[in-house]
Specification:
The protein is mainly alpha-helical. It has 5 helices and 3 strands, in the order H-E-E-H-E-H-H-H. It folds into 2 domains: about 60 residues, no CATH class; about 40 residues. Strands 1-2-3 form a 3-stranded antiparallel β-sheet. Strand 1 and strand 2 form a beta hairpin. The longest helix has 18 residues. The relative contact order is 0.16.
Length: about 120
């Protein structure tokens, strides 16, 4: 099972990449267009709703690992994953002088609140 820690890009690529597939690295991620047609839409949903990471053309290592879960290439501890994302939000908000400019993980928070209220 994958425990969330800082994921190295090359490790995430090894897990996600299929035989013969070539992912193009750009900065700290891979180009979205190189994922393949099936995975582009799912990557956008993960970026916009779950992690609120709006780098439209680049998929980060933790996104690749999450996509690999859908390929059944690894497992993920979701509570730990979500907890890590919330810690990232808290850290960003503590550092920021302009809180209105901080992108919050509203989709994740809404998911947690809705689930809690439904219980």
């Amino acid at each position: 099972m994958w425990m969330l820690k800082k994921v190295r890009l090359r490790d995430a690529i090894k897990i996600f990449q299929d035989e013969g597939q070539k992912l193009i690295v750009k900065g700290k991620g891979v180009l979205l267009a190189t994922l393949g047609e099936l995975w582009i839409e799912l990557a956008r949903i993960i970026q916009s709703y779950i992690t609120c990471d709006y780098r439209e053309d680049v998929v980060r290592p933790f996104h690749l690992k999450l996509l690999a879960v859908f390929k059944q290439k690894c497992a993920v501890n979701l509570p730990m994953f979500f907890n890590s994302l919330l810690h990232d939000v808290a850290r960003s908000m503590k550092k920021s002088c302009h809180l209105e400019s901080v992108v919050s993980h509203h989709g994740l928070i809404q998911l947690i609140v809705s689930h809690t209220l439904a219980q």
